[in-house]
Amino acid sequence: MILVAMMAFVPNVSAQKKYAVYGIGFYNLENLFDIQHDEGKNDYDFLPDGSYKWDELKYNHKLHNMARALSDMGTDMLPIGCAVIGVSEVENSHALDDLVAQPELAERGYKYVHVEGPDRRGVDCALLYNPSLFTVRDVKLVPYVQELAADSAYFTRGFLTVTGTLAEENVAFIVCHWPSRASGSFYRESGGRQVKVVKDSLMRTIPGIKVMVMGDMNDDPQNRSMAVELSAKPEIKDVTDNDMFNPWWKILDSGTGTLSYQGSWNLFDQIVLSPNLLDRNGTRDYSTLTYMRCQIQRRDYLLQSEGQYKGSPKRTTAGGVWLDGYSDHLPVVVYLVKEKP
Length: 341
Fold this sequence. Notes:
By secondary structure, the chain is α+β, with helices and mostly antiparallel strands. A 6-stranded mixed β-sheet has the order 3-4-2-1-17-14. A 5-stranded mixed β-sheet has the order 5-6-7-8-13, with helices on one face. It contains 7 helices and 17 strands.
């Protein structure tokens, strides 16, 4: 319960009431591979004799760095950190076991949800969660369906869909890693269409469920995949029952983002919210889980401190050189609030 933070960020809340705040995050871990080969996966670059010379030392450093960044998420408001964090670009359950065993995450008791997916390179999405705050009820990996017959033999990452209970309410998280910019925009637009179907199905079959779609979309908020196909709007007042709210649109418009390319920011890492998470009428009724604010989790250690790429995310490896960095993406967090009884 963070009463001071509530009074700072939500206008006109009553000083006589108490509020609980929950952090929900997403982070692209940029190639969290172990050092063993997985049968059927193209993970050869991340083996001791591969192009990255990926050995136990580098792997252990990567685990420590990821745990540091993940444990920092949400702590600007919440000492306990995020209740739930979606992640992408993790190889397998072995890497996740090693990740949650890191001291920074183990001391909070983080668990994870993961379903092995069909991605040829072997990277999946997963959901980390604090079991004292979030209870998992159901897990499903919804496959990405190729809409073009010519692509039927190509498999990519599905949509990890997790339902459960947060603050005694039904919630769902759909964790995504949509096709890369190396593919045409059609493939991400297809991802947006398919995720909207998943979201609509959840809200139809579980009355009142609150849905958050999160992930590395490989598109910005204003791109068609997000703005049209997923129907994620930049203004709460414009969100209808069939839409979602995308708070990251204005942040990108302000000139900052989560990854940098040739000196310009993109904001591919997003968490968007179903209408029942919003105070659409301006009533300031926080008797149920309600969106409060969002932030890009910027820490000095996550950024290049010098050179040509100063200020950009500090990657694990760049130009064939091991930097002992973090990720080419920055983490993002949204905060939800609920009045305590």
